[in-house]
Specification:
Elements (H helix, E strand, L loop, with lengths): L1 E2 L7 H10 L4 E6 L2 E6 L4 H67 L2 H25 L1
Antiparallel strand pairs: 1-2, 2-3
């Protein structure tokens, strides 16, 4: 594809040509056909409209970039929070496992019947409180 004339100029330089009374015509060769572009009075308005649309698009892209960056920060914060929560749950699980080991060891060294009676009583109290609160509301 060959280009001749001022068709290779940017839209800003064509606008400057139009404003100063410069070259008003250009031709472009596509294959065997030659097309002539006549500069009209609506070209500057079209170029201004295009510039405004480009600026609007640039603002929207800047907004999308800001949102994307904020999402990235939020994801990092949430990952940090989840890691801390995972660590806390591991520590709690280890503490409960240690407590259960001590409880079983105590149950074996002392009279086992007393410990099972105590556990049964605690479970019965929990069931009673659950049923009482369920029926009272």
């Amino acid at each position: 594809m060959q280009q001749t004339g001022s068709s290779h100029k940017s839209h800003r330089s064509r606008r400057a040509d139009w404003a100063t009374g410069g070259a008003h015509t250009s031709s472009t060769v596509y294959g065997d056909k030659r097309y002539f572009d006549e500069a009209s009075t609506s070209e500057p308005a079209t170029l201004d409209k295009n510039d405004k649309q480009v600026d609007t698009l640039r603002e929207k892209l800047r907004g999308l970039k800001d949102i994307t960056v904020d999402i990235g920060h939020e994801i990092r914060d949430q990952n940090s929070f989840l890691s801390q929560m995972n660590s806390d749950f591991e520590n709690t699980g280890n503490a409960l496992a240690g407590t259960m080991k001590r409880f079983y060891r105590m149950a074996k060294t002392q009279s086992g019947a007393h410990m099972w009676l105590l556990c049964g009583f605690a479970i019965a109290v929990c069931i009673f409180l659950y049923l009482y609160l369920k029926w009272s509301s």
